[in-house]
Amino acid sequence: MDRYGVSLMWKVVPHEMVAAKVPPMYSYDRHNSQGGVIWGWKSEVPLTDDRVKRIMFGCIKSGRLTFYQLDAVRKAFSYAYQLQTGTKGGPGRNDHCNYPCMHRVWKTIDRAKLPASNKRTKAEVIPTFNEMKSAFRRPWTRKHPWCFLKFICGMRYTYDTFVCGLRPNEDVKRVKKSTEHFLRPEAGYGSTAYVGGRCKNVELVPWKLYTVCFCPGGVHVSPDKSDHLKLDNHGNPRVNFKWHSTCPLASFEYQEQFAAAKGDRYAKINSYGNGFQTVNESDPTAVAIQWLSTQGVGHPEVPFSHNSGRKTLACLLSHCEIDYPTGFEVHADRHSVWQKDYQHDCLDVVGFTRRTQHTDPDVCCAALRRIANKFGLGVYRAKKLTREGKLMAKALEKLGEGDYARKVRLGLDTESESESEDDWDVPPLRPSWLPKVVPPAPRKKKRCRLPELDEDWTMS
Description:
The protein is mainly alpha-helical. Helix content is 36%, strand content 5%.
């Protein structure tokens, strides 16, 4: 924010910055706290109260900055004031942690005359359930526009953003900084702890991002220990791997085999595409949106919204008929907030007041596994049936509908892919225990014989 505020000053009032003897950006000591972009030491700040007043007035009178951009400029001055005086800032002390002129200059702002902000916070283009299912069911091939290594990383970013519903800024930042990872492929799941716990909480509430298996066939397949050595110079495997390219758990297992990426969930791929750098990907959400586009999902000219991850998670939970306590382990929002802003058909459950994540991984992964099963992927976990449920399942088996009962118990889609909304008028199947009704034989129609005409008959 401080660097952004200084860049706005140089963009709007460069003449005032030169008059104030402010050095240009990237000309400071590269060892300071800002990496040499702006001032980071006390000796590097040439500002006085009069100079700050002229610069701030010029930014306001220019009419080019929105209210929130002017606030960024004010925060940049606050940082410079703290460097000069050593005064510590904090919540509620902004006026006492800035130059004396700032309080008076800030009162002159007329928000009605400032330009409107073009920043959109509402997600407008959101992936649907069928689009997400199509993307994750389409594996990598050698004809894909991306190399294999970039493909599996983009797939995992898509899982974190659009399946787990990470916020593109704060949530991604806490997962990006995390080095606390736990992988248990034999159980079909892995986890990454949030640095600082769950977002939007004053006190620390520990929270984890769980990764489940998306392998087809119901059995998780892990990469071999030497698979990272089988890539060519373009980032493609020299031999076909046995594991599946659309499984986020296998993808993270594979990434951990690289020494440069070990411990980083969002490690950045090098320019050749055959390895990783020691830095993280700056914007994993943008890469996830590009991955969906390469999978043939969405319109190429209208990409998905950058902040549509939680909306997509709400869509998946509604389609899979997942209740609020089960989905809470993923999104961590209160029911009132989640129902109002994201999942409008989410019904409240009486008696559920817990605000911490469950300690049992199977409980935390239940919603994610249900989504994977609806995609036709992942490890299937049968539900425990009550006595009445067992009797109903046995009755369905007697009627020859054992496969239907199995799909219901596993949480799979009971409708075939060929069924559509136009097939609602098809009559239901008749149970075998009802007596068969033989339809009556159709009556034979009598033929009408035309009268015989004479040969010399003509039409009058």
